[in-house]
């Protein structure tokens, strides 16, 4: 959207530099996001996510987060942390020109 407003921003994804940055790409298709989601799944004892589309990913997320079970509550917290981390890392690269932090890596060590 910022590119369409003629803002002085890079149109490509700051994380992988492979595609234009968009919500679906940044939070699902980007190599960096894929690593985050797969680490989260491994930590939760779930199978790695496939190559589905954004809609399938959201449906999977909703199914995992439903209910009041301990797993659903942990999943919701981990999901929120993962989204926050991806966005934080993207902004760190955009505004501070810094590399990935170790904080998130430590969260998903098994």
Protein described:
The chain has 5 helices and no strands. By secondary structure, it is mostly helical. The radius of gyration is 15 Å and the shape is globular. The mean pLDDT is 80.
Task: Summarize the entry for a quick read.
Helices cover 59% and strands 0% of the residues. With 110 residues, it is mostly helical.
Helices and strands, with pairings:
Layout: H1 23-29, H2 31-44, H3 54-65, H4 70-96, H5 103-107
Helix pairs in contact: 1-2, 2-4
Largest sheet: none
H and E string? HHHHH
Rounded mean pLDDT score: 80
- Helix fraction bin: 55-70%
What percentage of the residues does DSSP assign to strands (E)?
under 5%
Oligomer: single chain
Please tell me how large the radius of gyration is: 15 Å
Which stretches are poorly predicted, pLDDT < 50 over at least 5 residues? none
The total count of helices amounts to 5
Key terms:
single chain, 110 residues, mainly alpha, 5 helices, 59% helix, 0% strand
């Amino acid at each position: 959207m910022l590119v369409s407003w003629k803002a002085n921003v890079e149109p490509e994804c700051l994380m992988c530099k492979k595609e234009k940055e968009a919500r679906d790409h940044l939070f699902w298709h980007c190599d960096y996001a894929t690593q985050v989601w797969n680490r989260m799944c491994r930590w939760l004892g779930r199978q790695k996510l496939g190559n589905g589309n954004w809609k399938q990913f959201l449906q999977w997320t909703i199914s995992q987060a439903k209910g009041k079970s301990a797993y659903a509550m942990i999943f919701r917290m981990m999901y929120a942390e993962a989204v926050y981390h991806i966005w934080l890392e993207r902004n760190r690269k955009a505004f501070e020109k810094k590399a990935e932090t170790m904080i998130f890596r430590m969260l998903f060590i098994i």
